[in-house]
Amino acid sequence: MEQARSARVPDLIAAAAVLALGLAAFVGALGLGYWTRGPGAGFFPLWLGVLLVVLAIGWAAQVVRGRNLRDAEPIAPGGRRAVALVLGALFVAILALDVVGYQLAMTALVLFVLVVVGRRRWFESIVVALLSGFGIYALFANVLQVYLPTAGVPFLADMGL
Amino acid sequence: MDISQLLAGFAAVLTIQNLLLVLAGCLLGTLIGVLPGVGPVAGTAILIPLTMDLEPAGAIIMLAAIFYGSQYGGTITSVLINTPGEASSAITVLDGYEMTKQGRAGIALGIAAIGSFVGGTLATIGLAVAAAPLATLGLRIGPPEFFALMVLGMSLLVGLAGRSMIKALISAAIGLLLAMVGLDPVEGAPRFTFGIAHFFDGIEFVAVLVGLFGLGEILATLLEKRRAAAQVTVGRLLPDRTDLRDSAGAIGRGSLVGFLLGLVPGVTGSASSLLAYGAERKFGRNRAALGTGAIQGVAGPESANNAHANAALIPLFTLGVPGSPTIAVLMGAFLMNGLTPGPTLFQTDADVAWTVIASLFVGNVVCLVLNLPLIRIWTMILKIPQELLTAIIIVFLVVGSYSINNSTVDVLVMFAFGIVGLAFRRLDIPLAPLVLTLILGPFMESALRESLDMSRGAMTIFLTRPISLALLLVAVAIVVAPVVQALRRSKHGPSSLANRLREDVEV
Q1: Which residues on chain A are in Cβ contact (under 8 Å) with B449?
Q2: Cβ distance B242 to B289 under 8 Å?
Q3: Integer distance in angstroms from the first to the last C-alpha of chain A?
Q4: Helices vs. strands in chain A: H and E counts, helices first
Q5: What is the ipTM of this complex?
Q6: Is A65 found in the same domain as A91?
Q7: B368 with B68: CB under 8 angstroms?
Q8: Which residue in the set A14, A35, A114 is minimally distant from B391, CB to CB?
């Protein structure tokens, strides 16, 4: 019971998010035209918005009454930190794709994930990072003729990155 | 069945290039099944960009091979490390891992490959026989019936898949909402694009799926740190005469169960393997031995999930309705290649359809031949440290989502849906309904709006046409029955199929 109660807050937040999504869809759909000779562009999203709102309220009601709560897998020690680090690094790397190019961005990302999050040895990490960054780029460019993003900064672009 | 068309299909498959595509697809699919953290949905989606340079038939052949190859591969982790590589092999863990502990891992994998081959081939024969006649029937279906059929498929998914119907419905509704993004299919008005031109063509479903299933799963693995080390000896591979005699019945029953359930849109492969296991518990030989490393506990479910995988192509080919998330991805690939799966496929692109069907026969042979000798290589992959796999998989998630349209916007979409995927997992919201509605959304909406156009806005059109009425009634029954049952369940009443399946999941 204790555990079930601890699961309530995230469930309620999620239900609130679904509610907000439903309301947003409803409001957005109002501006799209509900009926134009036949059902219009806003017809389907409007009813979806209503459905989401109803479902969110239903879910929240279940949660408040303590029903339908399930314990998720326990979070491992350091699990939150690992997820936060990977998400942060991945976000930065994605934003960097068009700036410094795939090769540098991915090499740095893999190196970070292996050394900082995974605590792997430096040598192994550098090899895997270079293969992921430069190796994959070369493989895709030469074998598959798929060009991964290159650097937007002229100085790096001149170096072929 | 038109034999000449099937033979022409075989002729088209048996070229060097297409055979190589089947081979590559089977290998990649098995790899996807083996790798923890990459299931068939994300795996197939990531690999779609690889096939974009191919002609349509080749692309579909390869993706289909990836799809059923992953069914073979998922077994390997179930048997060796007590962790299913994909959901439909989950039940195999029970007896498969016990067999591993007894030093019979090789035999478990061997019988799984043989059972998968038999199940897959029988279901493909069913596809070859039934596809064209069913497609002719499908041609008579109008927008109201099509809409009703999709509602039925979704209600099955909602009714069977999850433990909470509200959560499954939320998932389905969010998928439909995502499908609305882009230009409206009837009038061309932009919807929910936030003025970003990239979203005018709709939100890229491959990026969404790679995020939900790929990144989401990787994040969940990081958060929960689950992973068992593979310290196993594979041992002998080929089952002996006693093993074969013990499993023959199970393979037959499993194939039948998988084939029949595969025909029903909305029923996923895991339902088939669970039911096949249930069948062994009821009718099988040495029932008492089940759960202690009985070979039929591996043979039944594994035959069922492959029969299911191949049979599930029947509703896709004949009605254009994908029955499971992975089939929905495959449907997306058809659409990207300019092919519309459904009754018209056998008229407009009959040669492609028959080539793909023939490739399924070939692919099942290839998977069987590949699997037995390569098992030792797959077990080596299981010994790669989790941190390395995480990093490498993230690289492929980025590359896969970028190369769909050569756009970093899609990589950001993948990233965002990775977080959503993690949230869904933690909140126990099923992902399958979202996938189905995301891909079917535009079709559902067009069908609904065309129907209402036909009836000048009267919703009664769905109730006055007999086929659509019947389909909708079944759909309503599926959704309402468990609710009624829950309300009435003061004592232990007879449990429905859905409840039995749910209880089985928690075994």
Answers
A1: 38-39, 43-44
A2: no
A3: 56
A4: 7, 2
A5: 0.91
A6: no
A7: no
A8: A114
Q: How far is A153 from chain B (nearest CA, A)?
A: 16
- Residue among B184, B392, B411 minimizing CB distance to A97: B411
The 3-state DSSP class for residue B189 equals coil
**Nearest CA of chain A to the CA of B277: how many Å?**
26
Q: How many domains is chain A partitioned into structurally?
A: 2
A92 and A147 both lie in a single domain:
yes
Whether B398 has its CB under 8 Å from any CB of chain A: the answer is yes
> Look-up: residue for tokens 């040669």?
B351
| Shortest Cα–Cα distance, A139 to chain B (Å) | 12
List of chain B residues whose C-beta atoms are within 8 Å of the C-beta of residue A21: 174, 177
Q: Which helix (H) or strand (E) holds B183?
A: strand B182-183
Which among B184, B394, B419 is the nearest to A41, CB-wise? B184
A84 shares its domain with A66 = no
State both tokens at B9. 């299909």
Of chain A residues 9-48, which have a CB less than 8 A from chain B?
10-11, 14, 18, 21-22, 25, 28, 32-33, 35-36, 38-45, 48
- Tell me: do A60 and A86 sit in the same domain: no
A144 lies in which domain range? Answer: 79-158
Domain identity same for A85 and A148: yes
- A115 and A65 share a domain? no
Q: Does A94 touch chain B (CB under 8 A)?
A: yes
Q: What is the pLDDT along chain B (507 residues), one digit of tens a residue?
A: 568 888 888 888 888 999 999 999 999 988 888 876 677 888 888 888 778 778 888 999 999 999 888 888 888 888 887 777 677 788 888 888 888 888 888 888 889 988 989 999 999 998 888 887 877 777 777 888 888 888 887 787 776 655 678 888 899 999 999 988 887 777 777 788 777 777 877 888 888 988 998 899 889 888 887 655 555 667 777 788 888 888 888 999 999 999 998 888 777 788 888 888 888 888 877 777 888 888 988 999 999 988 998 898 888 888 888 877 888 888 888 888 888 888 788 888 888 889 999 999 999 888 888 877 787 788 787 778 888 888 988 998 998 889 888 889 999 999 999 999 999 988 888 888 888 888 888 888 888 888 888 888 787 888 888 888 988 898 888 878 777 776 776 444 444 444 544 444 433
Give the contacts of B248 (CB within 8 A, at least 6 positions apart).
none
Which residues of chain B neighbour A42 with C-beta distances below 8 Å?
191
- List the structure tokens of B67: 């799809």
CB count in 10 Å sphere of residue A81: 12
Q: Which of A71, A91, A116 is the last residue of a domain?
A: A71
> Which one of A71, A103, A124 terminates a domain?
A71
Tell me the chain B residues in contact with residue A120 when contact means C-beta distances shorter than 8 Å: 385, 387-388
Among residues 208-227 of chain B, which lie with CB inside 8 Å of chain A?
Answer: 218-220, 222-226
Name residue A93's amino acid: A
pTM (predicted TM-score): 0.84
* Domain co-membership, A30 together with A83: no
If 0-12 CB within 10 Å is exposed, 13-18 middle and 19+ buried, where does residue B313 land?
Answer: buried
| B174–chain A nearest CA distance, Å | 8
Same domain, A88 and A147: yes
